[in-house]
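Memo to structure team: turn this sequence into structure tokens by end of day. - J.P.
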Amino acid sequence: MIKYLEVRNIMPERSPSRGRPKTLDRDQVLQTALMQYWSKGPNEVAIGEICTLTGASKPGVYREFGSDDGLKLAALDAYSHLVIRPFFEVLEHDRSFGDAQTALIDFTTQDRAAIGIPNGCLHVAMRAQRDKLGVMTREKVDLLRQEGLDNYAVWIEQAKSRGEFRMDIPTDIVALYFDAQNGGAMRMQTEGVPNDVIAKVMRLALMAIQ
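Reply from structure team:
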């Protein structure tokens, strides 16, 4: 079973800054924001709530992240390191096309409670609410989506070159198909559909391109 990285390891190391020491714990604020956005929805959590949970002040949060948009951007960037990159690393291993699909399903339908992370996908949630996000976060959402489609495309082309994908379907269409299946799985997860049921739905959907 392929697992997510631990949440406590996602915050990048930062060099100590000069000048007056800061009382704001940036990593705590960022991790709290990430988990709140992820579990409740990116537009359902105000900075004031994050301040209450962390003990940070609003002026301190704005000094550190610039704006609500800046905080959401930082949270999405952290999420990409925690989940999105490891997800696509599954495709980089030397697996057959079928085995890689199974690995993707296993990754997607892990027991989140055992890992200590929320159900669903923050990126999928942000895509659904894209028009309500700030400019910087929207740009990051779009960038991550394109990077995801590009990763799928490379993997599919490799499968075609090995003769493992013989259907006459353009690669970009197949990439969008995989993207749609993952997004659907993440939405079902947030709706409370059991992971074993989601896995069965995904296997059924992917049978169409075997």
